[in-house]
Design a protein that fits this description.
The protein is α+β, with helices and mostly antiparallel strands and 195 residues long. It is 31% helix and 19% strand. Strands 3, 4, 5, 6, 7 and 8 form a 6-stranded mixed sheet that branches. The protein has a 3-stranded antiparallel sheet with strand order 1-9-2. Helix 3 links the parallel strand 4 and strand 5. Helix 1 crosses helix 7. The radius of gyration is 19 Å and the shape is elongated. The chain starts with a helix and ends with a helix. The mean pLDDT is 90.
Length: 195
């Protein structure tokens, strides 16, 4: 989001921006919210909605971590449970894939126990932890893409698991056509990766 906001501020240099991370749903009218980015397309009926991206997850780690713990013949099935980074998506996000889902997509039945690995509460923390060499994260591609492109992370498999819902932008109808709101949503759509 931050790089896209920088581009938007070039066009609207005096725009006030307040970025918050909160569980859905929130009262957009009460808090005077112009745009809400949400996981899922079901929280805000009656508002204008634009789908941004339907992300997936794949195993990623730092290159130096792989040099220390892996090799050309290494398989994730063989890694100790303490080396997996688990994202605790919380009770409202049961549709997010787990390591067991990823192994099943690969045709396996392994189910690493989160109590034996590293646990984090945000997808971005899983990516940061992997980038720092703390383990292998089942990371969201959209969040990890810049690190993958820069070589700070490597993908350990081409197998990925799609998230249960897309990310969407919601706007109150009275605000949706405002130039700054339309520009932000247009920029998010234009720069959204195709997954």
């Amino acid at each position: 989001m931050a790089p896209r906001l920088a581009v938007l501020l070039d066009a609207f240099p005096h725009m006030a921006i307040d970025v918050r991370a909160e569980d859905d749903p929130i009262d957009l009218m009460r808090w005077n919210v112009d745009v809400r980015i949400s996981y899922g397309d079901y929280h805000y009926p009656g508002l204008r909605m634009v789908r941004l991206v339907h992300d997936d997850v794949l195993p990623v780690c730092a290159p130096e971590f792989w040099r220390r713990h892996g090799n050309d013949d290494a398989s994730l099935v063989d890694f100790h449970e303490s080396l997996f980074i688990h994202t605790n998506w919380g009770p409202n996000y049961a549709s997010h894939p787990t390591w067991a889902d990823w192994f099943a997509a690969c045709g396996g039945s392994r189910s690493p126990d989160p109590s034996h690995g590293r646990r984090v509460g945000l997808s971005s923390l899983a990516i940061s932890s992997a980038r720092l060499g703390l383990g292998i994260a089942l990371g969201q591609r959209v969040v990890a893409q810049a690190d993958l492109d820069a070589g700070r992370l490597i993908a350990l498999s081409s197998v990925s698991v799609r998230l249960g819902h897309p990310y969407c932008a919601f706007m109150p109808p009275a605000k949706a056509d405002r130039a700054d709101v339309a520009a932000l949503v247009g920029l998010l759509v234009k720069t959204a990766p195709s997954t």
